[in-house]
Amino acid sequence: EHLIRGEASGAGNVLMAVGARTGRDGIHGATFASEELTEESESRRPAVQVGDPFMKKLVMESCLELIKSGIVVGIQDMGAAGLTCSSAEMASKAGNGMELNLDKVPCRAEGMTPYEMMLSESQERMLFVVKPEDVEQAQAIFARWEVPCVEVGKVTDDGRLRLFFEGEEVGDLPVRALVDECPVYERPVERPAYLDEVQVDALGEPEVRGVDALTGALEALLADATVGSKRWIYEQFDHMVQGNTLQPPGGAAAVVEVQGTKKALAMTLDGDGRHVYLDPFEGGKATVAEAARNLVCVGARPLAVTDNLNFGSPEKQAVYYQLFRSVAGMAEACRAFETPVIGGNVSLYNEHTEGAIYPTPVVGMVGLIEDYDRAVGGALRPGLKVAVLGETRAELGGSALRAVVHGKKDGAPPKIDLQAERALQKAMVQAASEGLLAAARDCSHGGLAVTLSELAIAGSVGAELHFETDLRPDHFLFSESAGRIVVGVEEEHAKALTSVMEAHGVPLIWAGQAEGDRLRVQVNGEEAIDAALEDLRDAFEGALWS
Predict the structure, then answer these.
(1) Backbone angles phi and psi of 325, in degrees to 5
(2) For residue 115, what are the contacts with CB-CB under 8 A and spacing of at least 6?
(3) Comparing 105-119, 263-277, 444-458, which segment has the lowest mean pLDDT?
(4) From CA 380, how far away is CA 454, in angstroms rounded?
């Protein structure tokens, strides 16, 4: 009932800007993000926006108080293209126009032009609309928080964005031209020839055989920067501020309490440029599917997605195919999981002298845990029974094993079965809500062997595990088949978990239990992995440090 939309409704209503003063930082930031980088482009690099977390906190709290007061007609942040986007988009959503008096925009740089004011991407700024009789109340709210709040314009009903500066009209154009009538480029979508070259058979490499070779391969994967711990990055930031963090980074997803309730939000971020390069459509689906898998590993029901699409020049046929097909794959997965894309950004023309970057769509996904006491951790503890959910197939295309051990970054990546993924999601959320799960992590980079290691390292406990399979041990342990999760379960919950998985049609294999200080894995009765926990931890935690 407190939902406020980004709409500038009601002709004559007042437009107000709040937050930090406007500077010259970030001008052309949005357009620069889609410019091919050359030596010449360095001179046009925009000044990077400098965030002010303390001001951001004040703006957030004061805006929440403003919304709670009930006087807000519409509100939106000033993001890409700053005042231009926020004003035009708010007017467009309401079918209205807007007049802006740029003399009143608080600036922190001398002599800023209207052009600079309209395109600045300075951080910590918001735009909102109130009725004329509510202006003083709004200003009083922000005064208590010591946040600047000024009247910068008004809503009109003529459908035009008009700008005034020093007594002159300096801009006048239809709102629809800015927001709704942008040109759409229709380019041919043709499968590039490189896909025939890279989608080779990935199973023909010599077998990694024997306990020493397989254990060595596992330690090499754990030490790889793509697979290994990201602790070096996230420990540089305070993720415990205000005490709302229930599960910190490092697991499948972070979990944050919703104050005043038993609910919690789970958040994750995922991307795999190599898989998208090898098969844009399947790679796009896989990016969304893995993010959703991360959320259900902590017991959260996936809710929504924001995306960050990083590609080379779309004017090149192969890159445009990657963009077009990966977005189509992402969209198909989002529809299957009922997770709408509520926002995002695009960065194109990411090229250098050797060509384009890997096509790298990144997905941020948020999920809901109804009762945070039922949130699932990501660490084994002594005595837990270990089970693998989902089906393992011989799928090594684009895998970490193929890249790190065999030195090849090719092959067709795993296929994504969206119905099987959906069934796994529902089964995991049900099992978590019934308190059946003590630990869970999804299988992704590095496959089953890496996932088992992550669970063991997080819990400082080893495991004794036994598997029977028709696959070669190296294929079984390092396959990156999608739709798989490793769980740790208390003995008394094992039967109930089996029933839940059977009800949803999810394959389940009981493999052994957590114990000791070594990870020992047998495949078809033969020793495959035998590693001291400390050796695995050193490799995993040193991946970025080294």
Answers:
(1) -75, -35
(2) none
(3) 105-119
(4) 9
What does residue 512 show for φ and ψ, rounded to 5 degrees?
150, -150
Please choose, from the candidates 450, 473, 484, 474, the residue with its C-alpha nearest in 3D space to the C-alpha of residue 402: 474
At residue 52's C-alpha, the angle toward residues 48 and 54, to 5°, is: 170
SS3 169: strand
Q: Is the pLDDT of residue 365 over 60?
A: yes
Distances in whole angstroms, Cα of residue 370 to Cα of each of 55, 166, 487, 529 = 32, 54, 20, 38
Task: Assess whether pLDDT exceeds 60 at residue 420.
Answer: yes
- Exposed/middle/buried for residue 464 (C-beta within 10 Å: 0-12, 13-18, 19+): middle
Per-residue pLDDT at 3: 87
Q: Which of 200, 227, 232, 537 is nearest to 404 (CA)?
A: 227
CA dihedral 415, 419, 420, 422 (to 10 degrees): 120
Which of helix, strand or coil describes residue 342?
strand
Q: Which amino acid is at 242?
A: Q
- Residue 40 CB contacts under 8 Å (≥ 6 apart), including other chains: none
DSSP calls for 71-106: -EEEEEE--TTHHHHHHHHHHHHHT-EEEEEGGGS-
Phi and psi angles of residue 522, each rounded to the nearest 5 degrees, phi first: -105, 140
Tell how many helices (H) and how many strands (E) occur in the chain.
Answer: 18, 22
Neighbours of 533 (CB within 10 A): 19
At 120, give phi and psi (nearest 5°).
-60, 140
| Torsional sign, CA 231, 358, 309, 368 | negative
Q: Residues of 187-208 as b/e, b for ≥16 C-beta within 10 angstroms?
A: eeeeeeeebeebbeebeebeeb
Report angle CA 527, 530, 536 to the nearest 5 degrees: 150
Number of CB atoms found within 10 A of residue 106's CB: 16
Name the DSSP letter for residue 461. -
The angle formed by the CA atoms of residues 52, 70 and 59, to the nearest 5 degrees, is 5
**pLDDT for 163-208, tens place per residue?**
999 999 999 999 999 898 888 888 889 999 999 999 999 999 999 9
User: Residue 168's beta-bridge partner residues?
Assistant: 165
Query: Average pLDDT, whole number, for the chain?
Result: 93
pLDDT at 108: 87
Structural element, H or E, at residue 483 = none
On the question of pLDDT at 41 being above 70, the answer is: no
Tokens (6 digits) for 93 = 């959503």
